[in-house]
Amino acid sequence: MKVLKFGGSSLANTTCFKQVANIVHDYGKTGPIAVVLSAPQGITNLLVSLVDSLNEGNSNQSDQELILQKLSAILEDSFTQFPSIDHDAIAVAFEDLSVRLNQLVQGAKLLSHCPSATQAQILGTGEKFSVALLNAILQTLGNETSLIDPEKFLTIDDRAAEPVAELEISKKRFSDNYSNLSTIAIMPGFFGVKLNGETGTLGRNGSDYSAAILAVCVQAKTCEIWTDVDGVYNADPRLVADAHLIDKMSYHEAMELSYFGAKVLHPKTIAPLSQNQIRCRIKNTHSPQNPGTLISSESTVGEMVKAISNLSDVAMINVSGPGMKGMVGMASRVFSAISLADISVIMISQSSAEYCISFCVPGSEAEAARDCLNQTFELELKNELLEPISVRQNLAVVTLVGDHMQQQKGIAAKFFKALSQARVNIIAIAQDSSERSISAVIRGQRTDDAIKVCHQNLFLKKPAIDAFVIGCGTVGKELIQQIHRQQPRLNDKNISLNVVGIANSRKLLLDKQGINLENWLPALNDASDQLSLQRLQAFILEAHLNNPVIIDCTSNEAIAMSYHEYLQSGFHVVTANKKANTASFDYYQKLRDAADAKQRRFLYETNVGAGLPVIDNLQGLMRAGDELVQFEGILSGSLSYIFGELHQGLSLSEATIKAKDLGYTEPNPAEDLSGLDVARKVLVIAREAGLELELSDIELEPVVPEELANITDADEFMRKLPDFDQTFQPKIEKAQQNGEYLRYIASIEGGKCKVGIQSVDSSHPLYSVADGENALALHTRYYQPKPYVIRGYGAGASVTAAGLFGDVLRTLAWDHEH
Ligand code: ADP
Ligand code: ASP
Ligand code: MG
């Protein structure tokens, strides 16, 4: 014998009823079955609202009318879909239902409230309708059927906070009443009879439980729960699009999962099945060919964490106070009071000093819990031995479930780390003693992000980066190309790097699925958005992005000054733009504080030496307790090239023209020859080494005099530069006479930074650095007398983009160690 239960989502309209009828018809050919039905989708909600309004003494007819309208629409439709259906029989059954509903409603109106038996009878109307209609359809398909009335056997004990079935009584009553059933028997789910003989329900979603009770009574081998998803997923599929279907799970796992909120099963369903070794299978009415999820005593090895669930609308009650330490039996007094008030407790956490007991209850029961505790502890509260009982509403419980979490180390750590990466604050935690579940209480509105990141870290094990590239000049374009080229390899390494935003100074292109990097430029030109922090904030919220990274490929000051807000809003910031790190020291510090507070990365390896690993190395040395004693470096690729050429016989203007033609300079070479860019770089190094300097503290000797360096028009600058050759030439000659080279060197010594031309002999570490190379000589406490030298090409789109790319990967979700 098999029991098949079809939920409301499987009975939403006549087409669904038809699918159900076909499934039942086919199963009926293979052996006896019992079918349990819910109400058509949405009907119980309306019935609950009708009961609520009756209890409030409200005589509003609209719910009642709407219910009957919806049911009669399904009925009418079935007359069309099944022309040979027994119209008269079904019309009479429907008429009986509506008359009965009306009588119950009128009775309650007279009383100005709805007694519990009347409530249960009203609430079961949808289930009764489903049975009447499916029965008629099955008979039309030529099946012989019999009906089971749950009020004749399904016995409910409603004395505790939640109704439970009296299995032994139910079994006995069932065998007394139903010894002879047809191959197909049909029963409405959700309601039954209470110990006092009145109608009662099993609570919302209770038809699953009805099916389990019936399965025990008919001694079924299997109880199938048919719904609108392919089975149990490892996370709520409504929240996590790439949740995995679970093929097999143990009774224990299913119990924990449903208890902690997985709506696919009513939490009480599994216990009777497990006690009687009845297998349970979750199947999809809309794709019956799929095997679904099997729940049995078998527990699959290999998967430590099976699933994650979320229970919403939870409240936390806090009982605490100075007097609690000495009070004997506090926990027992708290929980007996709560249990006497029929309030169910979801989870408990208690501080070891017994100074505080916190527990969670359904949000709707929080006030009742507070009232009952206020009464119980009236005296203690009055004498201020206890603080006023506090209630925190709108919380959620997120739970990891898995049989094989037992004795495994590090799972809780991964769980809490994932929550911290999602920037979700944990309010309380609990682990059951069998170690099959670990729960964290969080703010309800953070549930989506929490579940998504936990799923990503614990199941997919595929960290995701959601990148926003700002600035589409040569570096930005090159970076996008490098990401595009590298994406398949990252994917193989289980890293998902998606560019979800690209912006230039006019447009902003967004796509939460990831922008197609093959052909992004036309799409950017067609985009209607513009870059703004607010737009990006709204976007990450709606797309639930947890690891968003801003990659600034501009040299724009306004963008640099908005990093603080980006960090505050949860973005990591990766930048090639030096303007932020060389703004005021206050701002410099503010950025680091915000990054620490928000657990985001602020990375700027390309600020000095483009792709050369300067900042990271320097930070590594500093962390290891080293100190920068002295620094010398060639930090500008264009000046390194120009100064090299000076000693090949070119004049300053000739060398500059050559460098410009090769694309080694800024569009206006005045910016290179002003030395300001080098000054910014040395400031970044100095600050990294712990010096609290401002840009204005740097002693700067430009290559060309200020009146030339300040020319903003490139053509004008290039026209005027040759006039300066005469003044400059003697410097070159003098160096050469001494066997020395001129180099444009940035240095730090004695807490001071200098940038300017130096004439160096062949013993100097920077003597041979030309051709566009950068070199940095770090004289530190550990590295002496020979310095730590970093050398290589320190400019150019590809090395800069590669440096940015490296920083982007360092933002990976669980790489927060630095
Ligand atoms: P029915 O009407 O068949 O009783 P429910 O709506 O009560 O269906 O339960 C099925 C729904 O449970 C699914 O549509 C799904 O959105 C939700 N659900 C929540 N968590 C899970 C999970 N872990 N696995 C499968 N479904 C889940
Ligand atoms: N119809 C009831 C409800 O919506 C029972 C069920 O569907 O399981 O709660
Ligand atoms: Mg359900």
Automatic annotation (TrEMBL):
- Kindly state which keywords UniProt assigns to this record, in alphabetical order: Amino-acid biosynthesis, ATP-binding, Kinase, Lysine biosynthesis, Metal-binding, Methionine biosynthesis, Multifunctional enzyme, NAD, NADP, Nucleotide-binding, Oxidoreductase, Sodium, Threonine biosynthesis, Transferase
Name all ACT domain ranges. Answer: 319-388, 400-504
Q: By its UniProt entry, which Pfam families does this protein fall under?
A: AA_kinase, ACT_9, Homoserine_dh, NAD_binding_3
* EC assignment: 2.7.2.4, 1.1.1.3
Which PROSITE patterns does the UniProt record give? Answer: ACT, ASPARTOKINASE, HOMOSER_DHGENASE
Listed GO biological process terms: homoserine biosynthetic process; lysine biosynthetic process via diaminopimelate; methionine biosynthetic process; threonine biosynthetic process
Question: Does the UniProt entry include the keyword Nucleotide-binding?
Answer: yes
The cofactors it requires, by name, are: a metal cation
Q: In which pathway does it act?
A: Amino-acid biosynthesis; L-methionine biosynthesis via de novo pathway; L-homoserine from L-aspartate: step 1/3; Amino-acid biosynthesis; L-threonine biosynthesis; L-threonine from L-aspartate: step 1/5; Amino-acid biosynthesis; L-methionine biosynthesis via de novo pathway; L-homoserine from L-aspartate: step 3/3; Amino-acid biosynthesis; L-lysine biosynthesis via DAP pathway; (S)-tetrahydrodipicolinate from L-aspartate: step 1/4
Described by its record, this protein's role is as follows:
Bifunctional aspartate kinase and homoserine dehydrogenase that catalyzes the first and the third steps toward the synthesis of lysine, methionine and threonine from aspartate.
Description of how the protein assembles with itself and partners: Homotetramer.
Query: What is the name attached to this protein's record?
Result: Bifunctional aspartokinase/homoserine dehydrogenase
Taxonomy-wise, where does this protein's organism fall, top ranks first?
Bacteria, Pseudomonadati, Pseudomonadota, Gammaproteobacteria, Oceanospirillales
